[in-house]
Amino acid sequence: MQNGTRYTMANLQAYMLRCLADVSPGFGIDPERLCLGLGFEVADLADPDCRLSFRQASEMIRRAVTLAPGRGIGLEVANQETISSIGLVGYALMTSPTFGDAVRLGMSLQNHAGAMLEFDCVEEGATMSVVAANRFHEPDIEVFLVEEAFGSFMTIARTLAGGEFRPSSIDFSYACPAYVAQYERTFDCPLRFGQKDNVFSCDLAWAKRPIPTYDPLSHRQVLSFFDELRAQEDEDSELIESVERIVRRDLRRAPTLEAVAAQLCMSERTLRRRLARSGVSFQALLDGVRQRRATALLSNPRLSIEEVAYEVGFSDSHNFRRAFKRWTGHGPRGVRFAV
């Protein structure tokens, strides 16, 4: 179970999850079953305004992987995706001058493409590589995430650079799967499993390949859109940090939404609206701060459960136990033993 509001903040684009729902019947899976009880339905994934949390997305994927064990479901999702599957980010890439420009731009816009891994582009010698790392510790869905990411890289690269594009090599941090033939068909290049990192590499010469759909005016327009979006996100991130800072000052007597809004010189309604725009509620922020503080205090054996409860704003230790289990999936005593 992950800590922090960023794991539960609903700011993840649903592009890839929509494709997962589309391919799941081919694996004998009812897509509605993948969403059951997660706070959204399959139809919601088609809404361009739909945003999900990493927790919701990872649970949907986990269910799919569990229901289709030993199948390359991540590769199959990638095979169904096109460059338009990542929305306006795809358009920004298509209007870039060269393949290298598109790759570097993609790195800067990865959060807008619904990426569930973190990507970094490295140019070394005659090789250009994209390294994929986990945002959160989710080992049971890592294979799916890497399959989908690297598989979609193939589709995007061939759309931008031409059908003859071929990686020079791909490294995977996990063991070779039983369905490795599916990997070989998808990537058509040397594959190495059990490596230190997940790395998709190609000849640096591809970076100079002009993109046929390059359009300078359209490119400037879409970049301007993302610049405005980033400015808004920076403002929202600053607001969230300010709210958390105010709440942390005295968790024993946690302030109300109205009190926090007053300290930020805005109305309660404005604060609620701006938090909603960021995909988070005041209660979720408060719970996140309480959870992190409680987990830290539980590592101190001199403090009783009752004292920890009081320190994070609960006058009743029973209510604290219930809340802590809701936050983490475990009771405070179990977490204390684990710590």
From TrEMBL:
Which InterPro entries does this entry report, sorted A to Z? AraC-type_N (IPR032687), Homeodomain-like_sf (IPR009057), HTH_AraC (IPR018060)
Q: Which GO terms describe its molecular function?
A: DNA-binding transcription factor activity; transcription cis-regulatory region binding
Entry-linked Pfam families: Arabinose_bd, HTH_18
Keyword Transcription among UniProt keywords: yes
HTH araC/xylS-type domain span: 241-338
Q: Which domain of life is it from?
A: Bacteria
Q: Which PROSITE patterns has this protein been placed in?
A: HTH_ARAC_FAMILY_2
Q: Which GO terms describe its cellular component?
A: cytosol
Tell me the keywords, alphabetical order. Answer: DNA-binding, Transcription, Transcription regulation
- Entries under PANTHER family matching the protein: HTH-TYPE TRANSCRIPTIONAL REGULATOR GADX, HTH-TYPE TRANSCRIPTIONAL REGULATOR VQSM
What is this protein called in UniProt?
AraC family transcriptional regulator
The root-end lineage is:
Bacteria, Pseudomonadati, Pseudomonadota, Betaproteobacteria, Burkholderiales
